[in-house]
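From the pipeline queue, job 12 of 40. The input is one protein chain; the requested action is below.

Action: predict structure.
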Amino acid sequence: MAFASPSLDVGAFPHTRSLLSKKARSPKRHHSQLGRIVVRSALREWNDYEDAVKRKDLAGALRLLKSMEEATEVAPLNGSSQLGLFGVETRRDWEVLDTCLNADDLRLVANAYSFLKNRGFLPNFGKFTNIVLEGARNVTPDVLKASTGLEASKFAPKKWGLSGSSQLAMITFLGGTSFLLWQGIDIRPNLAAILGLAFVDSTFLGGCCLAQISSYWPPHRRRILVHEAGHLLIAYLMGCPIRGVILDPIVAMQMGVQGQAGTQFWDEKMSNDLTEGRLDGTAFDRYCMVLFAGIAAEALIYGEAEGGENDENLFRRTCAFLQPPLSIAEMSNQARWSLLQSYNLLKWHKHAHRAAVKALESRCSLSVVIKRIEDAMSTDR
């Protein structure tokens, strides 16, 4: 007798059909539950990330960003709400740059820029690194004038009280002093005290007190912003990670920055070369361009430079590491070449430089300043 395998009529057993339907839907439900878990985890990590940014903890903020990036790559996102969540939250990635100023490990700062660039946030970071390989190397004063329309003397930093707005301030001070003495008002004790304080400030504090007072004068402060924005933009375009921009002279002194303000940047190649007792020409060129960018920015906007004396001194000290050392003529040519390269790069990207100046003037954070630069450069295309 043949054995007939009985056929299963699912419709005849409603309860069985219900169980099978639940089993059929379970993967989808599991998928949805997993998606909600991913969202809750992402929100928790974003909150942790924001806390790390507030604490200026670069290592922690960068670790969380990398963790969240890995999560979005492997997690099965479900629904537009989750995609929208990550689309909105990734706008905060920029904020990791605001933690760089407090970072002691500059390689960590470089990692933050590399991470953002790899994610497509910093398309112009390091875009002009190879510009140092272009153009003639011999830049005479005549070549500099023909290219910029300015005499070489216009790029030379001025001593305080001898030119520009500082000269006007000096004339006003001397005129006021003479008038008071002519009126028979003895101000010699006050004058001696002022000169004594100025001497202490210049000798022991690097002139930061006078710089702090001068920074409150709008025209002078505007020039400082133009100068530092020049450093910042050229460092960014040359691929040198920027640790931060310090505009307060007292804070600059506390952080060991000479001068009225400072832009802290890092060139890994040059740092490694100096550690090994040598200096690669390309890295040196790139460094010099960033170093003279502040002077070039002032010359471009005002027709001459006033600040930059500390930049020139740093240039001379760096030249001492070169083997063989540069002659005076070679140092002068290197300075002019660097000025011309930075001047042209700033001229080509005036909108980006102006955007950086406005952002610094509004006391925006570093992440906002760099975002404004990227926005300005994207509209120029």
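Job complete. Residues 147 and 321 are 30 Å apart (CA to CA).
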